[in-house]
Specification:
There is one protein chain. By secondary structure, the protein is of the alpha/beta class. The chain contains seven helices and nine strands. Strands 1, 2, 5, 6, 7, 8 and 9 form a seven-stranded mixed β-sheet that branches. A hairpin with a 2-residue loop joins β3 and β4 (about 65-70). It is globular. The termini are far apart. Flavin mononucleotide (FMN) binds next to α3, α4 and β7. Flavin mononucleotide binds near residues 43, 72, 73 and 104.
Amino acid sequence: MKRTWIAGLLLFALVLSGLDTGYAIAAESQGTDSNILIVYFSRVGNTDFLDDIDAVTSASLLKDGDKLYGNTQYVAAMIQQRTGGDLFLIETEEKYPSVYEQIDEQGGEEHRNRVRPKLASHVDSMDDYSVIFLGYPIWYYDLPMAVYSFLEEYDLSGKAIIPFVTSGASGFTGTLDTIQELQPNADVRPGGFDVKHSKVAEVKQEDVDK
Ligand SMILES: Cc1cc2nc3c(=O)[nH]c(=O)nc-3n(C[C@H](O)[C@H](O)[C@H](O)COP(=O)(O)O)c2cc1C
């Protein structure tokens, strides 16, 4: 039984569109992989979970053996394996609650008040990167506010940004436009992963390789 739900949770739905855009850039960048940064925000890494957390009831978590993954973290790790880029977690100073209703309360309040959470993690030398994969879960049909904090911290002019997203069902919503507004001189590319829980299919390494 346990194995079944673990396997089930490891299954993602993929809605891929225009894969030739973003991932082609990464493919071109192979061999000079230090210019690729995979930035992501995820519940895991921003929440203190109990060791014995029941991932099934936690709505958006994956458990693989002893390791707990956030959905976005999982996809980010796949992209990292494929591209060899550097992985960077957007980490907030204040952690989010582990109970889903409470994170909903905190996240909702941040969203309504357009709060910019203080970040605990910072990219040392953004100048080193020309391609940035940017992954986030959809929160309230929008970027999580921590991603606004990230995008307002750096000048990403001239860089290619390839957003990828995980969500219950919303998909990218208007977040590509939002990212472009926050970084008007960056080249924001459509075509990144759009992964939903509702359609169950497995994200495989081969999908990233396309
Ligand atoms: C605070 C909060 C708000 C959310 N809002 C939405 C939403 O508006 N639309 C949606 O489809 N999913 C929404 N979700 C679901 C997440 O986008 C989804 O579970 C995502 O895959 C979580 O990724 P993570 O495990 O990397 O944090 C929300 C989740 C949370 C915790």
